[in-house]
Each structure stands twice: as C-alpha cells, then as structure tokens.
C-alpha cells in the first residue's frame, strides 16, 4: 500500500480537484423518488388551480395563518405553489415543469444519461417561455393561460414590434424550435401537407363514389345505368393523374423517404415517387430508439475514469538504436564471399540488412548455382564464419535470394517502450494487438492474438520465454481496457506471473470459489479449464441466440443495444488463458488437462477465448499432435536440438538462434525471425502498480462454477455424516426445482466447498440427479411432500 501511495504522488501533480457529487444507489433511490413525487404533486396542484385558484386568491396572503385553509387539492402549499407557477409565472406552460421534475426523478432512478436530461430541460424551458408568450398574446381573453411572465413579455414586445410583429416573431420562434429540435426541413412540411391533402381528396372521392353508387329504386333503369356509368367514368378520369407512371430521369430525386415530385403546372399531373426504405424489425426500431436516447452501450462505463498506463513506466535503454559497425560488416561479407568461392559458388550481388541482434546478408548467386548446394554447406559456412547461430534461408520466400543471418557482435536491446511507442502498435486496430518485438529489418512486429487464434511458446530455459509472456501481457495492458479483456493466468512456477495479482480486480478472471486469481496449483487448473469450457458453451449459446458468428459481431450488436440483457446477453470480454510451464502440467495431470485444452483450442476462437501456452520442454509428449494441430501460431526461442526445433516449428532453425529473446515466429506459413521486446520485472511491477492503484471492479471476472469430478466420488454418504444443513438444503433445492450449488451458496450463505458437499449428499440421497456439465442438476423430488416422505422413510 505504501508503495502505491508513493507512486501516485510521484506521477500526479498537485491540482485542485472540483468536488464530485456522485450519488450512491440508495441516495439515487431517495432523490429519484422524491423528484417523481414532487412532479406528481405539482401536477395535481396545477390542475386544481383551474378550479380553486380564484377562491384561493384571498388565502394566499394568510399562508402562515393555520386557521385559514385553501380549497386547492393540496391545500395551502398547493395554492401557493400553483399561484407562483401559473399566475405569477408561466401560465399553463407550467405543467411542463411538473413533467420535467417527474422526468428528472426517473432519470436519477434509472441512472440515465445526464446530458440527455439537460437537453430536455433546455428545450422544455424554451418551449415554456414560448407558450407563455403565445398565451400572453391572447391575455385579454384568457389572462391566466400566459401567466404574468407571458403577459409582461407580450406587453414589452408589442410596444416595440406591435401585434403583427410579435405574432410573426412567435411564429419564427416556432420554426427555429422545430428546425433545431426536430430537425424539420421545408420538405417535411411539404410532405406533411401533401399527405394531408391526399387523405382528404381520397376521402372525398370515396364518399363521392359511394354516394353515386346508391341508386334510388324508383328511378328509370337506363337513367340509372347512365348515372352509374358517368359516376365510374368520372372516378377513372380523376384517378388517372395519380396512377400515371412517368419515367424517372434524375437519379438524385430518388431519396429513401417517400417524396412527391411536382409536375409542370400545365400538365396538372402529380406523381408520387416512392422508394421503400429497408424495413426495420421491431427490435431494430427499439434498439435505434435506445441508442438515440442513451447512446451506444459503453462497456467501459463502470471504470470510466480508468487511465491506461503511460509510456514513462517503461524503461528507456541507452544502447537502443542500431549502430553500424562498418568493419564487422565488411569482414563478414568477405568471409561469406570467400567461403562460397571455396565451394565454387559464385555470387552476383550481396546486400546487408542490419537488425537488432542479427544482420541478414542477402545473396544472389550466379546463374546456374543450385540452391540445395548452398543449403547443404550451411555448417561449413557457419564454421568458416566462426559464429554461433548462423541461419541460412535458401531461398528467402518471395524474394528468390539466399539469406544468411549472422549474429551481431554487439546486439542491441529492443525495449518494450520502443515497440509500444511505435506507430504500428499505437495505430493498430486489432482486437488483441501484441507487439512482439522487431524483425531483422528493424521493423516493429505487431500481431493480432485474436487472429492467431492461439499461441504456443517454447524454448529452452533462460532463453526469454518469461520475458516473451510478459511482453504479450504488457502489450494487451497498454491497449485494452479492463472491460475488454480478461486474463486467466496459470503459473506453476509461482513466481513468474505473481506481479499480475495486483490487477486481479481489473484484468483477471477466476473461479467463484478460489481465493487467488493466479492459479499455481496444478489440480485447480483442471477445474479452471473445464470452467472455461463451460464459459465457451455458454458463449456459443449466446451467439446462437443473437444470430452472430463471432464475438466481434456479437459485441457490436450488444453495443448497438440490439440484444436484451434480460435475455442473458452481456458484453463479452476477450479471455486470454496463459499457461506457463505447460510441460509440468501435462506431466502431472495428463489427459485431464489435454482434453479441455484441445477442446478450447479447437472451438474457442469464435467466442473470444485465446490460449497462450509456454513450455521449456518441447518434447512430443508435451506438444502432442492434437495440441500442435490447433496452435498454428508458434514462437520458438532458442532450443538445444534440431529435434526440439522440429517439434515446435515443424522445421529446424530454433536450434540456431542466439538466445536472449531471439526467436522465430510462424503463423503456419513463413518463419520470421524477431528479437523479442524486453520488459523487465520492475517495469511490469510499475505497470501493475499503476493499474492496481486505480478504481477496480468489485471482484475479478467470475468464470462459471465447475464442480469437479472428485466431488462426485463420495456418493455413499452415511446418513449420520450428513451436513447439519442437509434438510434445509434439500428443501431449498426442491422448492426452487433447481439443483445448483450456487443456489445453496446464496440462500444458506455458504462457501462453495460446503455447498458442493451438500449437493453431493443430495445426489447420494437421490434428491438431485448426476452432474450434467454446465447445466444445473435435475431435481428428482417433485415437491416438499415427496421429499419429506423420502427423508422420513430413511430415518424409520
Ligand atoms: N528480449 C530480450 N532481450 C534481451 N534480453 C533478454 C530478452 N529475453 C530474455 N533476456 C535475458 O534472458 C534472461 C532469461 O530470460 P527469461 O527469464 O525470460 O527466460 P525463460 O526462458 O523464461 O527461462 P525459464 O524457462 O528458466 O523461466 C533474462 O533475464 C534476460 O536477461
């Protein structure tokens, strides 16, 4: 804690803070309901004023005299308030005040958008003034309607503008209001007018036709026929202009809203051009309305003030930036040329690209030289260049040249700061951007974890795996809000990821019953993985109901308020599962972890769960076929043998790396050599401190509850060993007809383990059915009578 404090004082300058009026939920309830009631009372008082206002005039001056009562339905206060608002204030327009106060109460209660409320107040006050002046205009007839303000303002305006001027000014005020508030245009009026005109003419026509069709029985038949004929012919003639279809020439005239295009006066013909706007479903309409009223759903709202870590928290290295050692370059070039010449390989040109740790020499061999010949001489060339970690790429994909990578004598550190600060990272629009480091041509390399969709990291000990993991996590922390991504961290070594404990309530996800968010116990990993599988199934269900194919589409739809939270929909954060020391896990838990990992790897990509697994031991029994098949994106740090390299990358190369963050990255096709960004423990500590010191969610992101199989083993529970709360628990479960441990936890206020044990005992007693994965257990007792019968039989 002390540390946190010093940190914040260091970074923030003293500044005077404006006092914040943030209401608690209870305060909101009190204030909201007070305002609503006040609004209703005002309304009642105002209505009453029109019946009792005259009688109450005399009682107003006697406000403090208890003996004098008012006729207003709210008695003295009602009389006084309505007199104040209606007589002395704005007249009938004061009713709008009552509405506004009621509306404010509703906004406070539902925690509505403040700027929306402010807008309502602003426009309503304007319309109140306008109405008041309008009625003030007719004050001679109805003097109460405009109130004193309306009357006085009218008198003032009429002195300067006269009656006509005032009337026109009022009309102009109305136009301004409609134009700005309702975005009305001249066309809107025109369309409205035409629509009304059409309605009237249709009605007239209908009535006329009907009238004409009523033929008096005693009339001459031929005359009737004539009448009817003329009546019809008339109708047809009249309807003709409307039905005439005129070819439309101008494309611009076709607007999505129905529009009437006037023809030349002489033709006296009207044509209605109607383009059918895309029909919106009811839910779309509702969503549009909600978005209009409240704006798009903002998942970051709960931590609105959250600040992303600044670049200053990352260290700046002196030795950054490539220094060109001309001598070294020349020397290496000569050696390469000489060595190749020794093997009778001629070179037509050679080019060097200097990277942070290695320099790439690109060679174009003379015509007729076989590439395989150069590839075969790899070891000989390496020997004559007497350098470790030479890698020959023959040919460089897409270039037709041969590459020889030679480590630099003095490598430079690629700092996390430089890659995070790069334009490429800062401007990336990826879902889960990761700044891995810099390529051989010194370009920052940024990839999207969401596209990978899972990452396998392997390398011998001490070659930069943990730094790599930290770089991945740091990248995400710099780019993603706590609402957008959650980490599930598995760290059997117990030391690598502990720093991330500080951001538990911001970024971590955990099982409901676990105390520590970072999982260090291998047994608990199995539960977490299975819980993630449940989360995956749940998310698929949500996606299916929302008719979305992936999490991105789903979240867009949710933000546009097209998905109803009452149907279980919610904004879904990405979940990144990081497993360090995967080999260790496989050794201790074997199939039990491999199965859920494989399931997640196969299916979780669409619903935003991504896996990063890291291992020191890249042997085939750890990185099995099924794992490999589902992890197309792989990072290999230096390994000791070609076999290990093959296991990770399906090819050699990782054995020729030079360590210290030098790595090969593949996403299934080409292999890219990257110098991993270096982020040191103190830097990670500063970042997690910075984030940890900010306001957090009440708890870590809770994963679905998973009842492990081990709890289902002790089914033969002795009746005498039953929990004292057994009967209560049974009654709760049977009454609710829902067999879930979390229900017991809530109702009986128990810990997860005890609730889990109770469920087992209930299963053993035949009250609930067996474990069914993500679903609640079936309740086998239909009602309390059946339950009591069962329990009584047991004891007798
Ligand atoms: N990207 C890098 N740039 C510079 N130096 C690095 C880089 N990555 C790692 N190193 C150096 O290598 C050392 C070991 O790295 P790291 O702890 O990441 O290895 P590891 O593979 O996780 O080892 P282990 O498997 O034993 O945990 C670091 O202390 C650091 O000095």
Automatic annotation (TrEMBL):
Matching SMART domains: Ftsk_gamma
Domain of life per record: Bacteria
InterPro entries the UniProt entry points to: FtsK/SpoIIIE/SftA, FtsK_4TM, FtsK_alpha, FtsK_dom, Ftsk_gamma, P-loop_NTPase, WH-like_DNA-bd_sf, WH_DNA-bd_sf
GO cellular component terms, semicolon-separated: plasma membrane
Name the record gives this protein: DNA translocase FtsK
Membrane topology (UniProt): Multi-pass membrane protein
Family: Belongs to the FtsK/SpoIIIE/SftA family.
Membrane-spanning segments: 29-51, 85-109, 121-139, 159-180
GO molecular function annotations of the record: ATP binding; DNA binding
Single GO BP term: chromosome segregation
Pfam families, alphabetized: FtsK_4TM (PF13491), FtsK_alpha (PF17854), FtsK_gamma (PF09397), FtsK_SpoIIIE (PF01580)
UniProt key word Cell cycle: yes
Subcellular location: Cell membrane
Organism from which the protein derives: Bizionia myxarmorum
Keyword set includes DNA-binding: yes
Positions with a binding annotation for ATP: 459-466
Keywords from the named record: ATP-binding, Cell cycle, Cell division, Cell membrane, Chromosome partition, DNA-binding, Membrane, Nucleotide-binding, Transmembrane, Transmembrane helix
Annotated ranges, domain FtsK: 442-646
Record's signal peptide: none
